[in-house]
């Protein structure tokens, strides 16, 4: 793994440890890492096996556990020092983490300190190539909700195309995934289902989505859509840290090279496109 990504992870971990009472939102930690908000969460989770929120909570609770056992500050003061002005909220989180209330933990006087680790190389290997891709105009339907349910939006899109006989203007099927399932509630995830549009104005009832011409990293995944998360972990946990590349401030998107109507799930081919700076 190149020093760049290792240093970013370590910088963020140090910042969380040294500033437990400050703003430790995903956006703030992306700023500390100097990385695109679209992709920071994927890199972080792929390399640490935790989301940023999980690590923030764990380190805050660890700092609190030390203060409870080795110090004599009140529980209220300790809660504020680790970013919980509400004592009830702190007590609930601490009890979830350690199985005891802060008061009971202090009385027991025992410490435990699980440490973060980096996991690069532990994921299945996929080949990745860098391409210069042209600008594309997409005709899409928006989808809000679990990404696994985006198939309904694709069905609606192709039903619209069939009813209007638009096939001559339709290119490769594409899905754009805007939000992170690790940081956005499943019911609020935003995505777009559609295809490259080769006509003039996109069809009424659909939205235009522009993909700019740029360099992208392309991972080709073969298999059922339900297993594609392993390919994303490989892209962000294996390839990106050793590539010398920087992700652009733009979401990933997927090109579907064949259809579950025509081939078995094991034969499905999907290109994951990661925009590069």
From TrEMBL:
This is Transcriptional regulator, AraC family. Residues 10-108 form the HTH araC/xylS-type domain. It comes from the Bacteria. Pfam families: GyrI-like (PF06445), HTH_18 (PF12833). The lineage of its organism: Bacteria, Pseudomonadati, Pseudomonadota, Alphaproteobacteria, Rhodobacterales. The keyword Transcription regulation applies. GO terms for molecular function: DNA-binding transcription factor activity; sequence-specific DNA binding. Signal peptide: none annotated. SMART domains: AraC_E_bind, HTH_ARAC. PROSITE patterns: HTH_ARAC_FAMILY_1, HTH_ARAC_FAMILY_2. Keywords: DNA-binding, Transcription, Transcription regulation.
């Amino acid at each position: 793994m190149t020093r760049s990504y290792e240093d970013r992870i370590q910088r963020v971990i140090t910042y969380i440890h040294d500033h437990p009472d400050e703003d430790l939102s995903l956006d703030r930690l992306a700023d500390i890492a100097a990385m695109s908000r679209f992709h920071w969460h994927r890199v972080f989770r792929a390399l640490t096996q935790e989301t940023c929120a999980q690590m923030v909570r764990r380190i805050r609770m660890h700092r609190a556990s030390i203060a409870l056992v080795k110090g004599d500050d009140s529980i209220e003061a300790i809660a504020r020092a680790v970013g919980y002005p509400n004592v009830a909220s702190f007590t609930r989180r601490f009890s979830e983490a350690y199985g005891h209330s802060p008061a009971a933990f202090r009385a027991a006087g025992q410490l435990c300190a699980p440490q973060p680790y980096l996991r690069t190389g532990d994921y299945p290997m996929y080949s990745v190539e860098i391409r210069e891709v042209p600008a594309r105009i997409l005709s899409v339907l928006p989808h809000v909700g679990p990404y696994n349910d985006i198939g309904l939006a694709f069905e609606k899109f192709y039903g619209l195309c069939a009813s209007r006989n638009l096939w001559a203007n339709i290119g490769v099927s594409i899905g754009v995934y805007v939000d992170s399932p690790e940081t956005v509630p499943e019911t609020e995830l935003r995505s777009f289902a559609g295809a490259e549009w080769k006509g003039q104005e996109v069809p009424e009832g659909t939205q235009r989505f522009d993909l700019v011409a740029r360099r992208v990293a392309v991972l080709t995944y073969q298999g059922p859509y339900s297993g594609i998360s392993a390919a994303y972990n490989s892209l962000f946990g294996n390839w990106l840290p050793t590539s010398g590349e920087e992700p652009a401030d733009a979401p990933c998107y997927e090109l579907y090279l064949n259809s579950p109507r025509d081939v078995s799930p094991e034969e499905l081919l999907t290109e994951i496109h990661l925009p590069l700076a």
